[in-house]
Amino acid sequence: MGFDILLYDEEYQQIKSIIGRLHAEAVARVVFLVDKNGAQLAAWGEVEKLDTTSLASLTAGNVAATDGLARLVGEKEFSILFHEGEHDNIHISVVGGRLILVIIFDDRSSLGLVRLRVKKAAADLEAVLGRIQDKIRLAEEEHRPASPLAEITDEDIDKLFRTET
Fold it and tell me: What is the DSSP letter of 49?
């Protein structure tokens, strides 16, 4: 199921900081964050060498296909995926059930280091997601009448139940 995420500038800067720190601490080539629709939300590292649009889209497709596999074997999801290549590796993790965190790394790093650093970054990203949801909820409450009946007047009720004789 797809969804759109609304990023406020403050939270976007926090996300960029988190993935920048993850990039350094995991000794990664590239770190990027994608929504489940395949839209890239933020990136850090050697992104100019990649077709990030295709990579984001294919990553979201990969996660969706893996979700299908998980359900077939009775799992809710496989929240971490790992692809090992000859030169580069890709670590993919689902964050907060909504976002996909992708780390591309080579032999300067290790899967163990990446997994350790992703755990902290994912918790930080989930906290940012919570703040975004709080802002959205608050904005919706400010624009919503206190009750769906608040705008109905006594005159409206009288007109509704008045019978013509």
Answer: G
Q: Which helix (H) or strand (E) holds 162?
A: none
> Would you kindly state where each structural domain of the chain is located, as residue ranges?
9-161
Per-residue pLDDT tens for 89-127?
Answer: 999 999 988 899 999 999 999 999 999 999 999 999 999
One-letter amino acid of 34: V
Q: Which portions of the chain are predicted below pLDDT 70?
A: 1-6, 144-152, 163-165
The fold for domain 9-161 equals: Beta-Lactamase (3.30.450)
Distance CA 42, CA 29 (A): 15
Closest by Cα among 116, 99, 106, 117 to 83: 106
Distance, in Å, from the CA atom of 87 to the CA atom of 60, rounded to the nearest integer, reads: 22
| pTM metric for this prediction | 0.78
For 92-102, write each residue's pLDDT tens digit. 999 988 899 99
- Tokens found for residue 141: 């409450």
Q: Which long-range contacts (CB under 8 A, 24 or more apart) does 107-115 make?
A: 108/27, 109/26, 109/27, 109/28, 111/82, 113/26, 113/27, 114/26, 114/28, 114/89, 115/80, 115/91
